[in-house]
Amino acid sequence: MSPEHRFIPSLSAGQMAARQLKGLKWTVAHACNGSPFYRQRLDDAGIGPNSIQTLDDLQKLPFTTADDLKDGYPFPLLSVPQKDVVRIHGSSGTTGKRKILSYTRQDIDTWQDMFARCYELAGLTVEDRVQVCVGYGLWTAGAGFQLGSERFGAMTLPVGPGLLEIQLQILEDLQTTCLCSTASMALLMGEQVDKLGLRDKLALKRVIFGGEAHSEKMRRQFEESLGLEHSFDITGMTELYGPGAGLECEAHEGIHYWADLYILEILDPATLQPVEPGQLGEMVVTTLCKEGSPLIRYRTRDLTRLLPGACSCGVCMPRHDKIQGRSDDMFIFRGVNIYPGQIAEVLEPVPELSAEYQINLHRRDGLDHMTIKVERNPGMSRTDDAGIARTVADEIRKRILVRSEVRVVDAGELPRSFAKTKRVLDDRNDD
Ligand code: ZN
C-alpha cells in the first residue's frame, strides 16, 4: 500500500504510462507549434506535431544539448509568446554564456508542487522550520527551495549562502529543523558546530543537500557533527525547472524522480543508445508539461543508473542512483577515463581519512603524473601516513588501473568552498 501523501501522486504503472504518453504528445506538438528552433529540429528528423503515437516513439526524437541553449541565447527553446513568460532563471555555463530559461505561470506552479513533493518525501510536516542556505537571484536554487517550502506549508527561513556566523545564529535562535545546502556547506557547518560545541543547542533533524557530487563519507561526517536523523540527496537542474526533480526517501535506496513530469532515459554517452538496465549512463530528460522552455531528449551530462524494482517505502515513483558525476568532469590520465567520484569511492572505506581530497595532474619529463592529496581525520595520528598512502595508491592501481602518488595532509589543509569544491587541478598544459 502506498502511504498517504498530499503532494506525491499514487499512480499504477498503467496510469503512469498513460500520463507519460499524453505529456509526450502534448510536448512535441507544443514545441513544434511554438518554437522555430524545435520546429526546424523536429522537421529535420521527419517529426510533425502529431507524430507521437506510442511511448516508443520517443526514440525517434532528436536530442537537445547545452549548445542549443547557447545558440538560442537569450531565450533558447522558447515555445510560448514572450508575454506569457513570468520569470527568468539562469545558471553559469561551464564555458561562455550562462544558460537562461523561461518560465510561465504554470511552470512556476508545476515547479513548486514538484518541490513540495520533495519536502513531503523527506518526512517534513508544516511544523518544520526550513533554513534555505543556497544561492538566490538568477540561480534556481534559492527560489526553488523557498517556493517548495512555502507551498508545502513549512516555516521558511531564506538566509542564502555563506555567512557562516549568521547561519549558526539562525540555526540556534530560530530552532531550524531542516537545513537546505550543498554537501560542502553542511560539512563546513558541521565542523563549526563541533568546534563551538553547539550541537545540544540545535533542533536540527534533517538536511536536504544537492548541487554537487558528494561521497558517503562526507555525508556521514556532517550527519554526525550536526546530530541529524536523516539527510536527503536532492537532484535537479535549471533546464528542468531547478532543484527538486527528485529526492531520496527515508529508505535511502536511491532517488525517486517524478516520472509523471518528465521521462528519464539512461543512455551510453558515446553511442546514445540505452544502456543495459542498471548500468551507468547519461541522464537524458524529456519534459511532459513544461511550457516556457520544454526539453526534448535533453542531454544533461549527469551520470547515473536506474534502480529496478519497487522501493520499500511504497512510493510509486521510479528511482535512479545518486548522481555519480558529470560526463564533463571526466579527465583522461594516461589514456584512462576517470571520474573524480571513482577516487572518492576508494577513499571512502579508509577510517583514518576524511572526505576532503584534491586531485593534482601535472606533467614531468614528458609524462603525466597524478598526486592525490587527502586530509587525515582530525584526531588521527600522523605516524601511519606513509602506510595509508601506500594502501590507497595500491587500491587505485587495482581498481582504476593507474599509478598515483597519494599524500596524506593535515585536517583543514585543503581549500574549502561554500559551493562546489574543485576536486581536480589540471596543470598539464602549463609547460
Ligand atoms: Zn522510497
Q: Topology, please?
A:
Elements: H1 13-34, H2 36-44, H3 66-71, E1 85-91, E2 99-104, H4 105-121, E3 129-132, H5 140-152, E4 155-158, H6 164-173, E5 178-181, H7 183-196, E6 206-209, H8 216-226, E7 230-237, E8 242-248, E9 255-257, E10 262-267, E11 281-287, E12 298-304, E13 306-307, E14 319-320, E15 331-333, E16 336-338, H9 340-347, E17 353-364, E18 367-376, H10 385-400, E19 405-409, E20 424-426
Parallel strand pairs: 3-4, 3-5, 5-6, 6-7, 17-20, 18-19
Antiparallel strand pairs: 1-2, 7-8, 8-9, 9-14, 10-11, 11-12, 13-14, 15-16, 17-18
The chain binds zinc ion.
Residues 249, 251, 256, 311, 313, 315 line the site of zinc ion (ZN).
Q: How would you describe this protein?
A:
The protein has helices at 13-34, 36-44, 66-71, 105-121, 140-152, 164-173, 183-196, 216-226, 340-347, 385-400, and strands at 85-91, 99-104, 129-132, 155-158, 178-181, 206-209, 230-237, 242-248, 255-257, 262-267, 281-287, 298-304, 306-307, 319-320, 331-333, 336-338, 353-364, 367-376, 405-409, 424-426. With 431 residues, it is an alpha/beta fold. It folds into 2 domains: 1-328, 3-Layer(aba) Sandwich (Rossmann fold); 330-426, ANL, C-terminal domain (GMP Synthetase, Chain A, domain 3, 2-Layer Sandwich). A 9-stranded mixed sheet has the order 4-3-5-6-7-8-9-14-13, sandwiched between helices. α1 (13-34) crosses α2 (36-44), α4 (105-121) packs across α5 and α9 (340-347) packs across α10. The chain is globular, with a radius of gyration of 22 Å. Zinc ion is lined by residues 249, 251, 256, 311, 313, 315.
